[in-house]
Amino acid sequence: MKFEVTILGSSSATPVYNRNPTAQLLNCNEKFYLIDCGEGTQQQLIRFGIKANKIDFVFISHLHGDHYFGLIGLLSSLHLNGRIKPMKIFGPPALEEILALQFQHSETVIRYPIEFVATQADKPVQIFENADLTVETIILNHRIPCTGFKFVQKKRLRKLIIERLEADRVPVEYYPLLKRGADLDLPDGSTLLNADYTTDSERPRTYCYCSDTLMDERYFESIKGADLLYHEATFLQDMLERANQTHHTTALQAGQVAIATGAVKLLIGHFSSRYKALPPLLDEARTVFENTELALEGNTYSVP
Ligand SMILES: [Zn+2]
Ligand SMILES: [Zn+2]
Questions:
Q1: What's the gap in Å between 199 CA and the centre of ligand 1?
Q2: CATH match of 3-156+202-302 with 3.40.50.300
Q3: What is the Å distance from ligand 1's center to 36 Cα?
Q4: Which of 118, 164, 213, 234 has its CA 20 to 30 A from that of 124?
């Protein structure tokens, strides 16, 4: 099953050096989840050949503009392009009001249903579930209420070994039970052992998105054991004081978070405009956590 994230924007605060503000697109089993939607996200989708109408879920971490200024434009374009299927948006309570005000004053009546779910930044809770995954909030420590999002794949059914089932003429009506892991007692008194006819499904994987935050042990439990951890790394460690003042993290700290929480792989992003070249941020994070990559726009990272 596909479980991968494409970076649409990795800049903090303002667009600079061809870097756009934060946005990511998660593909889980060909369902598309937009995570944050900075200004220019629509253009980035076009640039990377992704159809915006494939997105059915939007998750907004907080109300700093670099994380949601692209949303009204995206929603409006979908309306103009004739979308009719619903869109589900998760974000801070005031986002609903902000969107409503923008639609109201442009006298836009969006022709597709928008279902808004308000997130709360006080304790981590599950906010979404479908057949493929669950989504929980991660409570971050930023200047305004801010949540990250933890996407956890569901355990899949066991895989059938079709050749063996056919060779032994096992009736197809038993297949669903076998997929669920059951041994089968047949009418003739014999037993079919599940292990002979199925193999284990893929291990469920986890993607954690840690948007703007101070490094804070209080959210470590939430992101423990992430297969892929995205963590902001706005500054280098020599700017720690500035990072603390603005409630951001350094690249070194992002590496420390990855180690402390047992991540498999770390992706860093939300780069300050003071860094034209990004390799120093990567090098710094790698001094503590080797399996780190830069969140580069247009790149797709599979959850390992
Ligand atoms: Zn930001
Ligand atoms: Zn912010």
A1: 44
A2: no
A3: 10
A4: 234
